[in-house]
Predict the structure.
Amino acid sequence: MKFSVYRYNPEVDKKPYMQEYELREIQPGLMLLGALLQIKDTIDETLSFRRSCGEGVCGSDGMNINGINGLACITPVAGLKQPVQIRPLPGLPVVRDLIVDMEQFYQNYRDVKPYLIVDDPMPEVELPQTPEQRDRLDGLYECILCACCSTQCPSFWWNPDKYLGPAALLQASRFIEDSRDQATEDRLAALEGPFKLFRCHSIMNCVQVCPKGLNPTKAINDIKKKMVKRAL
Amino acid sequence: MSVYLLHGLRPWLFQRLSAIYILLFSVYIGYSFAAAGGINYGLWREWLFDPPKTIAVGLFVIALLIHAWVGIRDVILDYVHNTLIRVVAFTVVMLTLIASGLWSAKILLISVVI
């Protein structure tokens, strides 16, 4: 099976280039991460990429596979068009090969204050929720911050420092929807303005690529609805 | 430039509301022209002379200008990053839209007066 992998080592290379690899034997059920590890172990140990859990939970191995972002560890190689084009996540600076600098992405995540804000004195034990209140967080809390969605979003490519991107906005929604959070008003006010939220034009690339099957576009539209209600 | 002319939520909302009006108006005017067997001068004059219809056309022009403004503003915000070029682009678009609006107003007012 043929692979064409983006290579760039800023200490040595002047320009990025694509390198071809071929694996003769492909075990049934092999995932793309397995193939990359096989290339690294048997052909080229300088090939660099992030990985950790290997089962779609940690979100480390987000990459661009034949033009579409996804997690290598849960992408079966069977069925991929050959040569499989593997590139780093688009829109973020490349550190080396398939490793990108996620700082801007995390910066945007921090910007939405992704934690409970409670002004009342904290209760001794816990902040209880009804099952219905808890259900509102489904589809929001599962995000693993792999950055597949934000780096597939053209609005994030053009204005990564001003538009928060689908991942951060999904988390904004997660805390706006949380019955225990008391900063809803401030959170909605903070997202006003032409850039932070409203660069989303609902093209739904984020929904298409999310490896966890989440729907950031719906979360963003829910925030917009809440903003309209607040304004009226 | 007052945070790119009126912030985020308002333009977004106006874009949607104007879209609804443009759609309803287009369907209505299309239907009435079709019902009359096609566009002719007499029918067009009736649209401009009948006061409720004059107002409907006037609102359509306003909705169209708002819709065009928000749409082009979005394109400029997305793609134009140089502040100077952005300000120039905003100004050119704004002047064009205002001129179009004034011209439409002139046509509608003349139709009322004559």
Observations:
- Chain B touches chain A through 14 residues (CB under 8 Å).
